[in-house]
Amino acid sequence: MTTLDTHELTYTEVDTWVDVLPEAELSTEIGVPALVGNAPVAVFRTWDGELHAVSNLDPKTGASVIARGIVGTRGDVPTVASPLYKHVFDLRTGRCLDDDSLALARYQARVREGVIQVRAAG
């Protein structure tokens, strides 16, 4: 007798990409907040056209403000500065360049059929 696996797939077991906004609506170096699954995410396009997605939560305070941060560079590193304590984060890695104890979660971002998508954690 064969038994069926009745295990239900959970959200984290599925490779899920979430539509965030049309690509044409994302301005260069202006952050956009989005909810990806249960995660608050900030999406950015840097001057070189690269997409970056990091946690929208300031790691020092927990406030959902990173999308309002100032985008720039340190050398050739694309960055965002938190609007609260001005900590600067590497958009490629989420690492804080000012305080090694702080970091932002990093998410994969892509464009599919003119829509920016962010991969849900899991």
Automatic annotation (TrEMBL):
The keyword Iron applies. NCBIfam families: nirD_assim_sml. Keywords: 2Fe-2S, Iron, Iron-sulfur, Metal-binding, Nitrate assimilation, Oxidoreductase. Residues 18-118 form the Rieske domain. This is Nitrite reductase small subunit NirD. It comes from Sporichthya brevicatena. The keyword rRNA processing does not apply. InterPro entries: NirD (IPR017881), Rieske-like_NirD (IPR012748), Rieske_2Fe-2S (IPR017941), Rieske_2Fe-2S_sf (IPR036922). It comes from the Bacteria. It holds the Pfam family Rieske_2. PROSITE patterns: NIRD, RIESKE.
